[in-house]
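As promised in the previous annual report, we have extended the structural survey to additional targets. Below is the entry for tRNA G18 (Ribose-2'-O)-methylase SpoU.
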Amino acid sequence: MSYLSEDEVVAAAGPGVGPHPEPWPDDPRLDPELLAQGDHRNVVDQYRYWRLEAVVADLDTRRHPLRVAIQNWEHDFNIGSVVRTANAFNVAGVHVVGRRRWNRRGAMVTDRYLHVQHHPDVADLAGWLAAHDYTAVGVDNLPGSVPLERTALPERTCLVFGSEGPGLTDEMVAACSSLVAITQHGSTRSMNAGAAAAIAMYAWALRWADAA
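The corresponding structure token record, generated without further manual editing, is:
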């Protein structure tokens, strides 16, 4: 499995901020190590110098009800990209279906700020979603899918994505209440899974992000 080194994380995140001037603020959310050494994480300014646990706790107070599920059969690099986008939309949770180990490199450590759950198979995911009153909506350009841009996604939606290439399995399609596809205007048959996930999450946010 590929992980980012601390140097790679710093390089990708940008310059960040240096050590905090003393005297340091009296705030339990702040991390003494970050205050002393600087904060080069890929976080918004609001969370500079905050402890990881404090950032997660604050995000938990305003997470959107949207959830995202990803089939993990091929150790797909795109899973990390989907997770990173899920963090950007502050979703309630990400569900990895299939292999427990997934390629975290593309996530750029954003999975640390999310609630990521593993499901060994489709049935386990479907049972969890039903128990928590979620509607599974598959995102794939399969027969029977309807245009995403003309679809009213429920507030408690779990967007479901397949592996890059094969897409959603037949079993996962059967577990979804509906299928949506992103209308394309070029020559390729399908869109990169990471890009499709970003578009689908944005489509949900257009309707529900301000209302959540």
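The mean pLDDT is 91. The longest helix spans residues 193-208. These points will be discussed at the next consortium meeting with the crystallography subgroup.
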